[in-house]
Write a structure and sequence with these properties.
- By secondary structure, the protein is of the alpha+beta class.
- The chain contains six helices and three strands, in the order E-E-H-E-H-H-H-H-H.
- The termini are far apart.
Amino acid sequence: MPIYEYYCFDCRKRVSVFFRTFSEAGDAVARCPACEGTRLRRLMSRVAVLKSEESRLDDLADPSFMAGLENEDPRALASFMRKMSDEMGEPLDPEMTEVVERLERGESPEEIEKMMPQPAGDESAADNA
């Protein structure tokens, strides 16, 4: 079931128009859902590709995914962390975003770890300091 995006010249909005079939989309004259206007120009839409869990894991196993990590480059580690977040569909929380940004600036993971607050009740980390 295709959904196409259009620019409506009548109400000057970007709108999405749903068609039941691809043939209907090719034959039908699109109508603006906001104003019922027919003076529409079709726009290029973003494409979303859904991946299976297996496909995601295959992508993560690709050696090029971890390029640069063998050199212990903080920027490569930051890139890896961003890619991992994107692949898993999990956004970085504010603390991890800060860590990644610091790695991108070239700070070493050890320096960052020393400066980050320790979790409450983590006495082993305090003993090692």
